[in-house]
Amino acid sequence: MQTITPYLLYEDAAAAVDWLTRAFGFTERLRYTEDDGTVSHAELEMPGGGEVMLGQPGEDYENPSRSGRVSVYIHVSVPDVDVHFAQAKEAGATIESVPEDQPYGDRRYNCSDLEGHRWSFAQKMRDVPPSEWGATTA
Fold first, then answer.
1. Within 13 Å, how many C-alpha atoms sit on residue 68's CB side?
2. 3-class DSSP state of 87
3. Is 5 helix (H, G, I), strand (E, B) or coil?
């Protein structure tokens, strides 16, 4: 089995772990903390499957909030997108779009986290063949 796991960089990885668990419902699996208190590596998992790794980068790094640029969009499937939206909004996520039904069958919203990484959360509402919403398949 192969999986793809995003590895995100945060200027304050310890704060990111705490915020991501509260806002997005991740569970902390492990955390490596250096002698100076810096979190050099952490792993979070999403109930039902999926994980994200994160760490604190070197001094030459600028998070998306500081650089003003979008560097990544992380897409996560959740069982109830409206409940997830309310939790993320309550925790202070920057909401970019509210939950809306999409032509491809998902109900989705977009937001940014505390350091500006972009996230998309969706719930599959119905199966729609790609040809019905204008997509082609290889």
1. 0
2. helix
3. coil
Q: What are phi and psi of 121, to 5 degrees?
A: -120, 135
Helices (H) and strands (E) in the chain, counts: 3, 8
Mean pLDDT, to the nearest integer, of 88-106?
96
Report DSSP letters for 19-50, one per residue. HHHHHH--EEEEEEE-TTS-EEEEEEE-TTS-
Has residue 27 got a pLDDT over 70? yes
Residue indicated by tokens 């509402």: 125
pLDDT (mean) for 62-75: 81
Six token digits for residue 7: 């590895």
**Residue 49, token pair as written in the block:** 């499957």
Angle at 72 between CA 79 and CA 122, to 5 degrees: 15
- How confident is the prediction for the chain on average, in pLDDT? 91
**Is the torsion defined by CA of 75, 19, 41, 117 positive or negative?**
positive
Structural domains of the chain, ranges and CATH numbers in brackets:
7-133 (3.10.180.10)
- Vertex 26 angle, CA 92 and 38, to 5°: 80
Q: Cα–Cα distances in Å, from 13 out to 32, 41, 75, 113?
A: 10, 8, 20, 12
